[in-house]
User: What shape does this take?
Amino acid sequence: MQNIFELNNLIAVLLSYFIGSIPSAIWISKWFFGIDVRDYGSNNAGATNTFRVIGKTAGFTVLFIDILKGWVSVKILTSFLLCSPDSMEFINMQIIVGITAVLGHVFPIYEKFQGGKGVATLMGIILAINFSAAIGCVVIFLLIFIFTNYVSLGAIVAAICFPIITIFIIRVESISLIYFSIFISILVLFTHKPNIYRLLSKNENKMNIKLKKDPAN
Assistant: This one.
């Protein structure tokens, strides 16, 4: 039984990495628009750059797929684990599987380990693990974005608020979830270092709601 338990855990982790590695922005831009989204805009393989370079339809599609990657990795894969959903082992495996999916998005095996920043996939994971905190972060992100038009600033502020919401507002008791929230905050700050520098130097690109569809522009 122990061997089966460990095998299921290993399979869940491996599958989460391969699911997280699906480079939706790259594949959609190549298959449907004949370009590599990484060659335009911020050169990032994520939903924001897809919005900016290709347009709203492609951008929302990438956003949905990237969020779904995180949600599926946690909700579906961990449903096959041989432990109680209320146990610490189950929560820990959810976190491990989720983090693995994000690492897959940031370092996708299908695209020479050159992926996006993982924010949308992180949102899918948080929605699956800590729904209340996820909604709080979405509200914060939208408020920052609406008033500033900076997607990166919204993501950074929401990430900083995530452990605050988890620890002080929702008052989560699980030590694993508390550490997870702190880790996520640090990870987002790390992957957004170039954006932070551009924000401080006032060189960061704003997101215009009325996006152009021509990637040459």
Q: What stands out?
A: Residues 29 and 35 are 5 Å apart (CA to CA). Residues 210-217 have pLDDT under 50 and may be disordered. The first helix runs from residue 2 to 20.
